[in-house]
Structures are given as structure tokens and as C-alpha cells.
Amino acid sequence: MRILLVNPNTNAAMTGAMAASARAVASPGTEIVPLTPRFGADAIDCNFESYLSAVAVMDAVSTVDTGFDAVVMAGFGEHGREGMQELVDVPVLDIAECAAHVAQLLGRTYSVVTTLRRSVGAIEDRLLLAGQRARCASVRATGLGTAELDADPDAAVAAVVEQARLAVEVDGAEVICLGCGGLAGLDEAIGARLGVPVVDGVTAAVRLAEAVVGLGLRTSKVCSYAPPPGNALTGWPLSHLGGAR
Amino acid sequence: MRILLVNPNTNAAMTGAMAASARAVASPGTEIVPLTPRFGADAIDCNFESYLSAVAVMDAVSTVDTGFDAVVMAGFGEHGREGMQELVDVPVLDIAECAAHVAQLLGRTYSVVTTLRRSVGAIEDRLLLAGQRARCASVRATGLGTAELDADPDAAVAAVVEQARLAVEVDGAEVICLGCGGLAGLDEAIGARLGVPVVDGVTAAVRLAEAVVGLGLRTSKVCSYAPPPGNALTGWPLSHLGGAR
Amino acid sequence: MRILLVNPNTNAAMTGAMAASARAVASPGTEIVPLTPRFGADAIDCNFESYLSAVAVMDAVSTVDTGFDAVVMAGFGEHGREGMQELVDVPVLDIAECAAHVAQLLGRTYSVVTTLRRSVGAIEDRLLLAGQRARCASVRATGLGTAELDADPDAAVAAVVEQARLAVEVDGAEVICLGCGGLAGLDEAIGARLGVPVVDGVTAAVRLAEAVVGLGLRTSKVCSYAPPPGNALTGWPLSHLGGAR
Amino acid sequence: MRILLVNPNTNAAMTGAMAASARAVASPGTEIVPLTPRFGADAIDCNFESYLSAVAVMDAVSTVDTGFDAVVMAGFGEHGREGMQELVDVPVLDIAECAAHVAQLLGRTYSVVTTLRRSVGAIEDRLLLAGQRARCASVRATGLGTAELDADPDAAVAAVVEQARLAVEVDGAEVICLGCGGLAGLDEAIGARLGVPVVDGVTAAVRLAEAVVGLGLRTSKVCSYAPPPGNALTGWPLSHLGGAR
Amino acid sequence: MRILLVNPNTNAAMTGAMAASARAVASPGTEIVPLTPRFGADAIDCNFESYLSAVAVMDAVSTVDTGFDAVVMAGFGEHGREGMQELVDVPVLDIAECAAHVAQLLGRTYSVVTTLRRSVGAIEDRLLLAGQRARCASVRATGLGTAELDADPDAAVAAVVEQARLAVEVDGAEVICLGCGGLAGLDEAIGARLGVPVVDGVTAAVRLAEAVVGLGLRTSKVCSYAPPPGNALTGWPLSHLGGAR
Amino acid sequence: MRILLVNPNTNAAMTGAMAASARAVASPGTEIVPLTPRFGADAIDCNFESYLSAVAVMDAVSTVDTGFDAVVMAGFGEHGREGMQELVDVPVLDIAECAAHVAQLLGRTYSVVTTLRRSVGAIEDRLLLAGQRARCASVRATGLGTAELDADPDAAVAAVVEQARLAVEVDGAEVICLGCGGLAGLDEAIGARLGVPVVDGVTAAVRLAEAVVGLGLRTSKVCSYAPPPGNALTGWPLSHLGGAR
């Protein structure tokens, strides 16, 4: 089984870290194929960057020529999953949604701990659209941006633990989801300090991709995610326009 | 007052029709500045095209050099409003949301009549995110795509009237919103046959833009729609990459 | 365009202050016609007074003989809008609902800051019935009654700013609505201290009335707000009964 | 125990019929004191008439000089309960809410069958505000007005049975509430034809009033329903103004 | 009228205390028949014990040979009501649900104060399933287990008062429900300290049972609570298996 | 990895069929350990039987002496998952919830097709409690009981296809979940006729169990699902009482 793991930002080092996390939990026989988009932001902390990443990720996947069995979209709370589900036939898994699905198999409620306060609403909205908001106790922000979390893992762990503890004690969360692709790999360190299950979206999505593919299931094409209807396109794919990486 | 009216698709004729509708209701002293994106689809009937339009519209607005007092985003149910609110300081108005706001000033419930069945979910989601879903009785589809509705106004009117009547009689709607930017200009013909108020999103948005600007109000920059944080960008704006229109 | 601006309480000075606010934002050519009911409370801080005002306002409007293009009901959280929509053909705009509509065009969430704690539930209920509660972060009370807020504008500003700050910092509000007709005129002073948009219901309603009238739209008469069915009435209009002002 | 049973309309014959129903289920020692308001509509089929009744009922109760242990407000879906709870110390029971409470003790879901289609929204709103909407399968209209239902009991039974059957078979209701005070006394005839429990609001409210009074409980005065704050009133009580009945 | 009052736990002393509470509010002519299950836990503080009690209570009621007019299930937040409604023809009343129903007749919002934090979710879920969650301001825990509350009434009162005060002041509750069958009899002592109505589920259920029986109503058998379909059973009733008490 | 697969009913043939389905999708190295309870119903079509199964399943699992890595509870819409999560340390997966989780990874909405109409509410309630109801388009009944579905697979397929088609065409479902453990193994036959993904709960749960175990995660023990507090038990485990199978 080949899983295409798409980092939404242009930071190839972060792509590598995510791939390492993914490989650590992948079953024998599962190949992780990492992909970095050709344009966009090197870290994503707002709606503009998120929308840009949605298109950059679709552009990157459209121009990949190898077969794969599933796509994991590794932006936590980013846009784009619904569009990708139209472009490809194989299952598409969003890490925020997968974290929520796994969390709800483990506890009655869950919270997300993410980066900046401005991202809280975006994550709430993604969970709402995925039908996964009812048991979300809270989405909390550490106040550190994606790049900051990525740059200093120790500070990241400390900041996440602080907010996660409040989520458990004040908001009533029973499971914590790490709300940033850049936190991949820190779930054990964080969980060890908290005494509650900690779910990382990238690894959750890899395992759920294996489950769905193993069940022989694919995205429903009957309505919302049918292939694009073929309206005339100008400039697509965008990375063919010119000098993008 | 100058209102930038952005068509999400690349169809300049549709831009022109929208601008004509907008000018017909604009107050004296309001200038409508139409804008067509440089890349994307010439009609939008799926999530992929919608996400592409979100970025194309942000690209187009980013590269316009004239001052304006508000932006009207003329895609019904398309993505992107949250990103645009970060990129500009002036109020940003989405036509689906504006149609819903006006409809709820006129009746206890409203329905939307749109194009293809696959777009129903996308419109429901946009209304949900805008906090405007509670009094939405239904979103109904005519089964005609955006280009079809645009090409044959008589057929468009008939198809919309049929679904709107069901919305009123079966779903309990008291107001009808026209769920496609390409229906601009047909609201009176449709309303005359139905006996209920019919709201067109483009004209609603123009008038709400005047209202908000007239009140001296602007988008809140305290959290969700603060300016982008300045992460490094590759390839932005995209239309500078190469040969796009 | 003539807009009938109805104060729900019997305090003519407050009617005058509201009219001044309304005129300050009205477009050229819009005439504001203020109206004070003939019976009821001189300030409204409970359900009993609110219900009484609903009938007093309908009584007053029923007995006005001049033509007008819209009715603005200037009680924040008061009852009666649905009844007025049955009695008149022109659009009817409630200031609490209009404040919420405008707020949601400016930010992802909003809070209301009002008078007494006992009014919080009434405002929540009005927003709920209007389908505008989903993005309401909170309704907060200053602890000052309507008359107190009206009597001491400086104290009113300070008390509102204190609660509004908590709404932004604790509840996650991005826009503040002033939850009392008597706060009309203080929105700029309050907004200047907060750094978030502040919406006054009276001015919002005037501008939305202009928008709706400008669109050529009227209240839907197909169901909920059809004219009264003509059941026999005793004692209506009430102000004809006797010695009321 | 004395229960004040207030008919919201001015039709004394309907007051008498309600009182007869109430007495038929009242426990030994419970006295039913019927009351008809001095002004308003002789049947209530719209919001205007409903608001008028809310004030007329408060006026009537305010001017009754005998002691009572509870107030039953016998308008199904009418306004006013919150105001009455401020004016009196004893428990106040609304018949629509009481029907819903009892229905939910008997089945997983319930529907209401009422008069005109225009009243459906008003009843939905009242149930929503009372926190009783979640298990409401539907509110259905017979198309007959209050006066029509009252005038022809056989036609009323047939019309209610037809809609109730649809509520059970199509909407999944397990209990039916009779959505009009004028249907009091027909619950057994209707229930016999349907095979599901049929709840009449007047009798339900009388029995719930006995239950609450028997428990020694009264309306909470800590916040929403505290006594009116004493703002100056003009013209209250209204029936003292002049020639009202 | 004979009301079967079933304690879900095996603690006969607690059954006796509940029966005493019930008798104190029962109307003349109402006989309270207490019942203790033959197996299960002697106090219930978790889902395992709660599920066990559901079956033990059904077992006990199935093997009672005397006629009764209603069943009161005296576990606050315990499972089983839906099953019991299938097994018997008479009305079945759950004390948590009955407390919520009565509370909502007395105030706009209510809170529950219960035992351990782990029971909060179970009570929220029961209220949700009963359609009674919308006006629930909060469910708060004292941190004392069922047995502890039962053993030391003074400590129980103090702990409940502390949380109830927070429910009123912080969460906005207007009525308090005592969230544990073992608190029966303490409602007056607690209410006296709080100034808000305090509802005990056991007494509320007894009075509601009288109301429903007095109305001549029974559980709807049309769908969810029809008699069991007669699938073959092994080992039922369980208490016939062997040496249970 | 060893997965304990617990059939809630006493029908060992159905346990065998479920185990065969489970093994067909299990990964290499995953052992399926089937378990049949010692008491209860041989098919489950009501709340009484469901509650009984919850306790019978906990009884059976409590008395199994071999180690396992996860428990799959194979009753669709049955009670008990929360209790099992307290009794064991390993992850516990309910097939109704797992079907919903997988379905939502594949389409925007899903419907469940189940057995008798009386079970619709029970399934809706289970999905509601699991936080998985928001995107559930409908739960539809074939009208065939569990034993009937099990006895005649061809009739089962035809009946499920008929309701599933209505779910897709009328209710807007994009994925179908088979709402009965007894339908295990028919998903492919049904999916082939419908053109939408069909999810079987047993196989979904097995694959999700592998995913969760593979991620090294376990049930949160911080609150709702902590081990039972140790209240004294009478008669537990129940199957030790006497002559049960």
C-alpha cells in the first residue's frame, strides 16, 4: 500500500519530519510517499495561507505521476479536503478530522491544542464541517506559531502540556489532539506528562488510511465528491505557469 | 463609495452581467468596479473549482491598485471570504451570506435554490460557517449547471420557480434566495411568479456593503481576520508566475 | 425614504436621542420619523415591560396616519417584531437582530453587552428566534439598568468597555453589539477604547432598512407574517380606551 | 388549592369549555377559577393577536383580587408566560409547554397538531424557548382556525386525526399534543382513533400545576423572573383606561 | 394509586429513605411501594454499575406480582428507563428526567449538582436523550460518591450548596436539581440556603407520576416502547438463576 | 494482536458469521477471538434485550481469562460500550460508532439501514451519544427483524437495497452503513447494486481496532471511563449464579 503524505506548506524539512512520524506507525508493507507543494507559505497560520495551501496541494497531487492508495493531507485545520476528494479516486484523509475520529474512540470528549489563537476558529470550523464538533470540549491555543513550534520542540512540549492540562481540568477533555502537523513526533513526550491519551493527526491519518484501504472502500462519488464537471480551466495546473520551484 | 465586485469565475461576460445588476441597485455615488480573476474555471460547480477560485480571487484583488471601500465576493457558496478578510482592510461581503442576512429580515425562514445537487452541501456548509443556517428551510437544486443557467434565462427562471415553489409549499420557506451569481437580474421575474420575496445575492451584497461602509465599520482585526502573519511565501501572487491571462 | 423609528418606552427624551443617532447615519433623502408609545414603561428592564411595549408600539404605529417605507423597532431584546410584521406591509427591523446581522458581516463571532443580568436571557432568546445565535459568543450585563445607562453616559461607557473587554478576551468575541437602545451614540467612544468594531443597533437598523427598501423588498406575507385573520377585537386600539397620554 | 385558568381570548364560552375540561381532571380539593381578559381578540390566530393577549392576560390577572396557588395560561403557543412569571409569585404554567412535558414522559418523540399553518412557527418558537424542541417530531396544521375548530367538534376531530396520523407514520411521532386550547375535551375521541397517547394542554397544565404546588415549589426569582424593577408606568393596568368590557 | 418506587442499588436503607421522601409528598390515596433489586451494586457511581442496575431493576420489577399504576426509577442518571417502558404498560418515570421537567416549569435554566465528576457525563447524556438538555446550564460534581453523600447529610448539604452557588452565580442557573437519589430529603435544607428552588428527583417523579396517571395516560406503545418482540431468552429473569439475595 | 469480538446475542451461529467477516478483513497477525454471552436474547430488537445484552457482554468479557488487545462490541445500536470501557484497559469499539466513523471518511453524509422501525430511535441515540449524529442523513428500517435478516440473506439484501436507495435519493446520503451485526458479509453484494460505499460495522471496527492499537493508544481513564470505584457488588458476575449456559 502506498500512502501519499502531503505537507501543505513549502517547508521540506517539515515534510521530512512528518514522513518519519508516519513511517514509525505504518504497518509492514505500507510505503509513505511524502510530497511538498511547489508554491505557498512555508508555515500556515491564517486563512489566506490555508486557502493557498489547498490549491498548492491539489496542484502538487495532480502533477504526481505515481500510483497511490490513499492521500493524507497533513495540515491541521487547513482547507482543501473536499476538493482533493473530487480530484482523486482513492480515499483522502485530513489529519484534523482523523485526530478527532481516533480521539472519540478513546474518550467521551476531546480537546485540540494548537498554535495561535487566530487558528482556533479555523479548527473549530473544520471539525464542525466534518461532523466532529459535538464532543469537542475545546480548541486551545499555545500562542506559538507553526514555525516556532517546529523550531523548539522542548518549548513546544511545555506550551502544549500547559494548555492540555487546562483542557482536561477546566474544559473536561478526556483525550488531547495535537493541533499542528509540526507537532508530529511529540505525542509520546506530551502524553507521558498528562496521563491522558494524546493523538497526533499524522499518525492517526496513516493508520485510518490503512484501515479504509484495507476495507476496500473508496470516496463516495455519488454527489458532493464526484469528479469535477469539466468546466473550462485557465492556468491549471498553476505550477506549470512558470518559475515555481 | 467604490465597491470592488469580484466574479469568482473567469467568464468576463458573467462579470459584466453581475456588474449591471449591481449598478441597478447601487445608491447614487456608489461606483461598482468589476473584476475577473486571471486563472480558474469559467463556471464553478464543484469544490475543486471553488477552492481554485478562492485563490484566484485573492490573487486578483491583491494585484488591483485602485482604492475601494468594500469587496463583494460574487460566488454563491464559494470558498475564500475568510482569506480575503485578512488581505484587505475594508469590509468583505459574500453573496450567499448576504442573501441569507437579507432574507431573514423579510421572513421567518428562507430557502436557497441553486444549480446542481452536488452544490447543495457546499452552500449548506457556507451558511453553517456564517452562522446563518438555523432558519434555512432547505437548499434545493434545479439540476442545471452554472453555465446552463447563464445560457438560457427562460429555462433558468422556470427551473428555479419549480424548486422555489416546493421550498415554499413543502419545506416551509417564506423567502427565496437565488443560489447562483449567474441568476443575477432574474429575481424580479422569479418573484413575480411566486408571491414571496426573492433575494439575489449580488444586489443584496451591494446594498449591505453600502450599509456597513455607511456605518463607518470595518472587519474586526482582533483575531480570526488579522493580517497574515508574514510567513515566507513562494510564488505569490500566482498570476505573476507566467502566462496567465 | 421615510423610516418610522419607534422607541418602545414612553421616554420622549430617549426617543429624541435615538432619532439623533439615526439621522447621523441616514443617507441623504432618508427621513427619520420618531414615535413614542402612548402607554407602557419609561424604561424597559423585564419581560412584563417588554410585552407591554410590544403592544404599545403596535398601538402607536396603528394610529399613525402618515406613509413610511420601513419601521425600525428600537428596543434591544424587546418583544413584538413578529406582530408588527403582520400589521404593516413595509419591512420591520428589530435593532437587536440588525446589530447581530451587521456584526456577523465584520467578524467571526460577536458578543452583546447589555444592562441588567435579568435581560441576558431575553436577548439570547430574541437572537435564537431570529436565527442569529450560533455565532454569538456571549451576552454580558453591565449591571446598570436602562435608565441608569441613559442618565450617565460616562459611567455607561466605562461599564460597557469593561464587559466588552471580557467578551473579547475571555469569550472570544470579535465584534461588540451595544445591547440597549439607550446606548445609541456611544458606539464610537466605546469602539475607540476596545480596538474592535462596535455596532449600535439603532444605526445598524436604519442602514439595513435603507438597504432592504433600496432592494425593493418587503416582508413575506405567505405564512407567518400574513395580515391578521380578522378575528373580532375588543378594545383595539388600546390608546383609544381613554385617558392615555 | 386554587388554580387560576386564564383563557387568552375574549370568548367567554371557550373559557367555560376549558374550565369544564380542567375540572374533569382536577384532584379533589382543587378549585378551578376561570378568567377571561377584558380586551383582545375572540380567537387567536396570529402574532399580533397573541401579543395583545399576553398583555390582556397580565392585565386581567393583575386586577383579580382573590388568592390562588398557580396560574395556567391556556393559549397554545401564545406569548406572555415570562411576563406573568414576573408579576405573580405562584407557579405559572403554559399549556403548550405542559403538553410537551407530559408527552415526553410517555414517548420518545411527540408532534403537535394545531390550527392554521401560520401558527406552526409560533408554536415551534415557544417550544424552542422552553427547551422542549429537541424531541418534537413536527408541528402540523389542520388548516382550520381557532374559531372553526371550536365551532364544529366533529370536523375538528377528523382534521386533527388526519394530521396526527401523518405525524405518527411520516414524522415518527409517538405521542400527539393537541395544539389549541379550543380542542380541550376532544383528546379522548382523538386518542381512541389513533392508538397513541393524546395530550391536551389544559388538562396537562392543571395536573402539572397540582404537582408543582404539591412539591411546595415556586418560580425562581433569582434572575429572569424577578419582580418588575419598578420603572414608571403609564396607563397600567390598561383595562382601567376606559370603556373596556 | 400505587406507585412502584425502585431503588437501582441494593442498599435497602437507601430504599427506605427514598420511600419516606416519596410518602412525604404523595397525595392522599397514593401508596408508595418500595423495591430493592436482588443483585447489583450497593451504590452506583459508574457506567458498569449503572448498566447492571438497569437489568437488576427490570429483573426486580418483572418478578413483582402486585398491581401498580406507575413505576418511578430512582437512579439519577442511571440507564434503563427505555427498557422498563417496554416491559410494563404503566407510565415509567426516571428521576433525573422528572427533576429536569419540574425545574423548567420554575425557571429559565437549571443546573444539576451530583456526586463524582465521572458521573457528570452520564447525567448530561441522560438529559440529552430525554430532550431536556437545551436549558441545562451545567451539571456540577461535589466530588463525593453516592455512599459518602448518603452517610453524612451535613457534609452533603454543604458540598451541594457550594456547587449550587457556583451554578447560579457562574453558570446562570435559576433552579437546582439534586443529582443523586441519596440526596432525597435534603432539598429543603439546601433550598433554604440558596434562595432558588431546589428540586429533588424522587419527589418530583412521584408527583409527575400522579399527574400522568391522573390524566389517564400511558406509555406510547406504537414504536420505541412496544412490548419486547419475543426473541428467545436464556437465563431470564436473572435472579432465578441461583443464590442471589 | 488479539481482538475479542463479542456478539451481544446468544446465537452462536451469528457469532461465527461475524467472526468469519472479521477474519476476512483482519491484517496478517491479527487473531479474532469470538465470544458469545451466557445469557440474554438470541436476537436483539428492543431496549430490554439491548440492556440485557450489555450486562451479558460485560459478564462474558469479565470471565474470559485470555489476554487481548481490543474489544469489538458487535451489536449495532446496543447499549454497553461505556461500561465495558471501565472494565477493561484495552480499547473498546462499538460497531455502530465505527461504521459511522468510517462512513464519514468517505462521504459528506451517511445513512444507516437497520432492522425494525422501533430500532431507529435506539440507533439515532447511540450515534448522538457518540457525537456522530451531525452528518447522519437518516436511519431507515427495512421492517425485518434481526433473526429474519439473518435467516434469508437474499431477502435481506433486497430490503436493504430498497431503503438504501431512498436514503441516497431522498435523504441525501452518500454512504450507507449496514445497521445490524447480522448483515455482516453482505456489504459487497449491497454496494454493488447501489454505487455508493457500503460500510459494515463489524469489519470497520476490526480495522479501527487495529489502527488504534497500532498507534499505541488506549481508553482514557482520567474521568468517564476510569475503573469502577469498588462499590460492593451482589451477584456479580451474574453467570456464576447458577445454571446459565
TrEMBL record, chains A, B, C, D, E, F:
Cited Pfam families:
Asp_Glu_race
Task: Please tell me whether the keyword Signal is annotated for this protein.
Answer: yes
Q: Which InterPro entries match?
A: Asp/Glu/hydantoin_racemase, Hydantoin_racemase-like, Iso_Racemase_Enz_sf
Keywords assigned? Signal
Q: Provide the transmembrane region boundaries.
A: none
Q: Where is the signal peptide?
A: 1-19
Family under the similarity heading: Belongs to the HyuE racemase family.
What protein name does the entry list? Aspartate/glutamate racemase family protein
